[in-house]
Amino acid sequence: MDCPKKSELDWEEVLTDKIDLDERLQEAVQGYWDARAKNKEKQVESGRIDAGTRGEVTGGTQMGALEVLVADILCEAGLKRLDVRTRTALELPGYFRATKKWDLIVISEGQLVLAMEFKSQAGKSIGNNVNNRSEEAVGSAKDLWTAYREGRFGDGAPTPFLGYLFLLEDRPSIKLPVANKEPYFEVDPMFRGPEAPAKKKGTVKCQGVSYAERYELLCRRLVLERIYNASCFLMATNAKATAISQPAKDLTFSRFAAALRGHAVTFLGSQKK
After folding, report:
1. Boundaries of domain holding 210
2. Is residue 144 part of a domain?
3. Which of 41, 69, 135, 256 is most enclosed, with most CB atoms within 10 A?
4. 89-108: per-residue pLDDT in tens?
5. Over the stretch 233-266, which tens digit does the pLDDT of each residue have?
């Protein structure tokens, strides 16, 4: 029996056979909450307590377990462990700024193979940073793609892969509709949500969509507009045994992992002489 061609393989099935994605993802997301808790404990012990949930994140490395999981997926696909970087030497040239420090990059034989952003949002004031996260995601990618166009990664460099993973704390408040301010023009219909009772006759007002829906739209449109090659949207409860949900079938971690693996295999194949 002939082996299937690479283009005919179901990368999600192939990857799951070698790495138990569900189990590893559960461990990695739990590691995120554990890291936040440890960061806050350190703040208390040192006598420096940041406002709100800031103390949970200022210690850094809270996304480290997820970064390790992605690194393992890339290495399982054939990339060298030394080429996958998650701690140091993460700066890449930009166009609108000198450099940008990414969360995970792959440099193989002097070539940029992949760059990734790992972002999260947790706590009661999630809404305060939705726009910042959106602007950051779009701006970072635009900066890198323009730098690539301008030859910052070498003449004839292969097209890199950009990935975006977002983890949102699953709590009741993020599922409630949030009204938009529309003093002059209506916002995108996808952000308007269902109609709400109007205070004045003849006017139509919409409830808006929840923060969870806004982040899901962000992750989806980053890919639809080809700003990123792949995106993943996860929600998880802050608990000793975190419960993970993946509300969008097109943004699941298994699809994201399959895209990562596919790019790694394609790149390695292009390097063979």
Report:
1. 82-268
2. yes
3. 256
4. 999 999 999 999 999 999 99
5. 999 999 999 999 999 999 999 999 999 999 999 9
Cα atoms in the 13 Å half-sphere on the side-chain side of 90: 15
CA 61 to chain centre: 15
Judge contact between 113 and 160, C-beta under 8 A.
yes
Q: What is the DSSP string of the chain?
A: -PPPPGGGS-HHHHHHHHS-HHHHHHHHHHHHHHHHHHHHHHHHHHT---STTHHHHTT--TTHHHHHHHHHHHHHTT--GGGEESSS--EEE-SSSSEEE-SEEEEETTEEEEEEEEEEE-STTGGGGHHHHHHHHHHHHHHHHHHHHTTTT-TTPPPPEEEEEEEEE--GGGGS-BPPP-SSSPPPHHHH-SEE--SSTT--EE--B-HHHHHHHHHHHHHHTTSSSEEEEEEE--STT--EE---GGG-HHHHHHHHHHHHHHHHHHT--
Residues 160/147, Cβ–Cβ less than 8 Å = no
Q: Interior CA angle at 253 toward 259 and 112, to 5°?
A: 40
pTM, two decimals, is 0.86
Instruction: State pLDDT tens for residues 168-226.
Output: 999 999 999 998 988 899 899 999 988 776 666 655 678 889 999 999 999 999 999 99
Whether 53 is covered by a domain: the verdict is no
Q: Are 79 and 72 in contact (CB under 8 A)?
A: no
Our CA angle for 248, 125, 65, nearest 5°, is: 55
Residue at 26 is within a domain? no
Residue 34 domain-assigned (yes or no): no
Residue 207 has what pLDDT? 87
